[in-house]
């Protein structure tokens, strides 16, 4: 079932010269049984080369060229195989931005990630939410030369009475006719149905591109409509390409992470999942309802999530049996294959080497991207790093805030909003977490290049401004303060950060001064729902030296994701937007640095933790943070040994 012998041959060679051992399913399949391997990549985010464009150096932790070696091995171990992608392939690193903003996509142009996927012989893909970041025209041109079908069932150009009556943006599903070899060497025909899904939240996240052009439907309700249709058209097995995370087992309309209730839909045989940048099966999902985190089952059906940026290849092995003229799944196995391992001394060991033909497919664009990111736009006379961005006022976040405020002030000149106080909200994007101990902004004194601006601001968001009340400013900060665990006064070495709270939802607001009282519970849960209405973590909140007027009006400079409801922040649901800017936040930062020539970033400690005598907390950050610990403003930080997985641990005396 691979696309050609030559492709299988070179990928098999890439897997190494060792003895290839057939998977047990292939080895023991009977005459009426066949082993089908379905491989998944997900959340590639344009990572083809094993290269970190932000730090401008090769790395062993990313790259479809590395994942390709596993693809070759997996194909060689099985009688029948398919390869699919689960979305988020067009955006996410400077190569993606270079193609979108610098080179552009004309009719007939081949996008580099599509070129790499064509080389590997993908059978199909679905769309992820980031496919929409550059607009529908860019998306259409990028997909035009794909040698494989791309499907998505719940993005709709024209809505009918129900999903089956909709006109979808691209085909909702595909039924592939494939030849299957059984255990006796006989060939059979099989129809494999593939249906794709994307979070409905794209309508908020990319409102400027999508509003008035498309709409979305609920993932589970869409599946319930189309899966029976696929069965009617003869699909023997149906695989869901779910660019949606593994979350609650209880279905709610429009849910973002819907893979668990999706698995319960009758007729779906297996699920490819993604979006969350995690690995499944893994202990991460040990306590999730309807999920077997050891065997890789959701509602008893095989499911896999292959990490992100090419870090893992997801593999679902299906033992199929012919019965009554159709094929059915009788048993399954699930695994993921990593491209690297992290050693006890924090070093990285590559587990595979790049496949040269994949690198060759994008070499020109790789070289052009290097030139693009190395272009200097100004200078900084102080280091810009994010090692302590989650625990103290931080210069790498503040420079973003300053640039946003500078830009919005200009854009509001001559409008009814001119003269209103402008605040600015920004969050650290590269702050460790799932990205690992090296995933931090770190810009040295000297030239600031485009690669550094992309490092400061990871996503191609566009600038926005919202109009809010003083009370909404306070609640915005209360929502942000949910990243911290509640701390018991007088107790030493408590864990400070809630690992389930993403750093990109930790907004710092410049233009006001405030403290965070960690003895209080969080007012909001990690999803933005109010759980402690009387909680007040934000204390001593002031503007221009006076207590903040809760009824006063303020403008907050932010981005399209936040202004459109991303993160569910009070005062930011799309209805309060007063400025929809034409420029990306990165472009704003570049323009600001160009105008300043030399920037002098320094934190002003406009926010700190409220004092708690006799209390200390622990947090983990990158090992390189040690060089800056004694220079952090507003908080006393000291080393506290090694953290897990290559992180360094630090202590704060409150």
UniProtKB/TrEMBL annotation:
<dbReference type="InterPro" id="IPR041827">
    <property type="entry name" value="CpdB_N"/>
</dbReference>
<dbReference type="GO" id="GO:0009166">
    <property type="term" value="P:nucleotide catabolic process"/>
</dbReference>
<comment type="similarity">
    <text>Belongs to the 5'-nucleotidase family.</text>
</comment>
<feature type="domain" description="Calcineurin-like phosphoesterase">
    <location>
        <begin position="36"/>
        <end position="277"/>
    </location>
</feature>
<dbReference type="InterPro" id="IPR008334">
    <property type="entry name" value="5'-Nucleotdase_C"/>
</dbReference>
<dbReference type="GO" id="GO:0008663">
    <property type="term" value="F:2',3'-cyclic-nucleotide 2'-phosphodiesterase activity"/>
</dbReference>
<dbReference type="InterPro" id="IPR036907">
    <property type="entry name" value="5'-Nucleotdase_C_sf"/>
</dbReference>
<keyword id="KW-0732">Signal</keyword>
<protein>
    <submittedName>
        <fullName>Trifunctional nucleotide phosphoesterase protein YfkN</fullName>
    </submittedName>
</protein>
<dbReference type="InterPro" id="IPR006179">
    <property type="entry name" value="5_nucleotidase/apyrase"/>
</dbReference>
<dbReference type="GO" id="GO:0030288">
    <property type="term" value="C:outer membrane-bounded periplasmic space"/>
</dbReference>
<keyword id="KW-0479">Metal-binding</keyword>
<keyword id="KW-0547">Nucleotide-binding</keyword>
<dbReference type="GO" id="GO:0008254">
    <property type="term" value="F:3'-nucleotidase activity"/>
</dbReference>
<dbReference type="InterPro" id="IPR029052">
    <property type="entry name" value="Metallo-depent_PP-like"/>
</dbReference>
<keyword id="KW-0511">Multifunctional enzyme</keyword>
<dbReference type="InterPro" id="IPR004843">
    <property type="entry name" value="Calcineurin-like_PHP"/>
</dbReference>
<keyword id="KW-0378">Hydrolase</keyword>
<dbReference type="Pfam" id="PF00149">
    <property type="entry name" value="Metallophos"/>
</dbReference>
<dbReference type="InterPro" id="IPR006146">
    <property type="entry name" value="5'-Nucleotdase_CS"/>
</dbReference>
<dbReference type="InterPro" id="IPR006311">
    <property type="entry name" value="TAT_signal"/>
</dbReference>
<dbReference type="GO" id="GO:0000166">
    <property type="term" value="F:nucleotide binding"/>
</dbReference>
<dbReference type="Pfam" id="PF02872">
    <property type="entry name" value="5_nucleotid_C"/>
</dbReference>
<feature type="domain" description="5'-Nucleotidase C-terminal">
    <location>
        <begin position="441"/>
        <end position="570"/>
    </location>
</feature>
<dbReference type="GO" id="GO:0046872">
    <property type="term" value="F:metal ion binding"/>
</dbReference>
């Amino acid at each position: 079932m691979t696309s050609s012998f030559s492709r299988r041959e070179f990928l098999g060679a890439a897997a190494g010269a060792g003895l290839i051992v057939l998977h047990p399913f292939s080895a023991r399949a009977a005459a009426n049984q066949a082993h089908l391997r379905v491989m998944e990549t997900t959340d590639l985010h344009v990572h083809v080369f094993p290269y970190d464009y932000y730090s401008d150096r090769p790395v062993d932790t990313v790259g479809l060229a590395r994942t390709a070696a596993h693809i070759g091995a997996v194909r060689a171990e099985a009688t029948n195989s398919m390869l699919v992608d689960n979305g988020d392939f067009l955006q996410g690193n400077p190569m993606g931005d270079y193609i979108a903003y610098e080179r552009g996509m004309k009719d007939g142009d081949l996008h580099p990630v599509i070129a790499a996927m064509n080389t590997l012989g993908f059978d199909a893909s679905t769309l992820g939410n980031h496919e929409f970041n550059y607009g529908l025209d860019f998306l259409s041109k990028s997909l035009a030369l794909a040698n494989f079908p791309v499907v998505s069932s719940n993005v709709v150009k024209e809505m009918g009475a129900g999903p089956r009556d909709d006109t979808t943006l691209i085909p909702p599903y595909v039924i592939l006719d494939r030849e299957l070899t059984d255990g006796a060497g006989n060939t059979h025909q099989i129809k494999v149905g593939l249906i794709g899904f994307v979070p409905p939240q794209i309508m908020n996240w990319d409102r400027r591109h999508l509003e008035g052009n498309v709409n979305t439907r609920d993932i589970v309700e869409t599946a319930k409509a189309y899966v029976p249709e696929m069965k009617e058209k003869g699909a023997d097995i149906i695989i869901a390409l779910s660019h949606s995370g593994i979350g609650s087992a209880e279905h709610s309309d429009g849910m973002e992470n819907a893979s668990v209730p999706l698995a319960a839909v009758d007729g779906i045989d297996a699920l490819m999942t993604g979006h969350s940048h995690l690995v499944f099966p893994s202990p991460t999902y040990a306590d999730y309802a309807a999920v077997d985190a050891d065997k890789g089952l959701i509602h008893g059906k095989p499911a896999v999530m292959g990490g992100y940026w090419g870090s893992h290849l997801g593999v679902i092995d299906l033992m199929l049996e012919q019965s009554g003229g159709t094929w059915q799944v009788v048993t399954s196995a699930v695994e993921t294959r990593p491209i690297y391992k992290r050693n006890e001394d924090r070093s990285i060991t590559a587990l595979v080497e790049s496949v040269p033909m994949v690198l060759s497919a994008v070499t020109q664009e790789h070289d052009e991207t290097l030139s693009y990111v190395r272009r200097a736009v100004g200078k900084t006379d102080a280091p810009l790093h994010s090692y302590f961005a989650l625990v103290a006022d931080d210069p790498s976040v503040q420079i973003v805030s300053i640039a946003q405020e500078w830009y919005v002030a200009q854009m509001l000149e001559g409008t009814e909003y001119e003269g209103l106080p402008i605040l600015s909200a920004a969050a650290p994007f590269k702050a460790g977490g799932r990205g690992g101990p090296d995933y931090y902004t770190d810009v040295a004194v000297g030239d600031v290049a485009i690669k550094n601006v992309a490092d400061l601001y990871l996503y191609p968001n566009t600038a926005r401004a919202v109009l809010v009340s003083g009370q909404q400013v306070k609640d915005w900060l209360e929502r942000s303060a949910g990243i911290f665990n509640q701390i018991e006064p007088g107790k030493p070495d408590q864990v400070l950060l809630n690992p389930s709270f993403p750093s990109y939802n930790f907004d710092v607001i410049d233009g006001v001064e405030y403290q965070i009282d960690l003895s209080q519970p969080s007012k909001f849960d990690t999803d933005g729902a109010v759980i402690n209405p009387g909680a007040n973590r934000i204390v001593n909140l002031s503007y221009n030296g006076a207590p903040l007027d809760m009824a006063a009006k303020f403008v907050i400079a932010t981005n399209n994701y936040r202004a459109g409801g991303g993160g569910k922040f009070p005062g930011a649901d799309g209805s309060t937007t007063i400025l929809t800017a034409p420029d990306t936040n990165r472009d704003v930062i570049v323009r600001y640095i160009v105008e300043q020539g030399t920037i002098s970033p320094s934190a002003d400690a406009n926010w700190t933790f409220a004092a708690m005598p006799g209390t200390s907390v622990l947090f983990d950050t990158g090992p390189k943070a040690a060089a800056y610990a004694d220079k952090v403003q507003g908080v006393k930080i000291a080393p506290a040994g090694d953290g897990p997985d290559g992180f360094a641990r630090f202590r704060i005396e409150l």
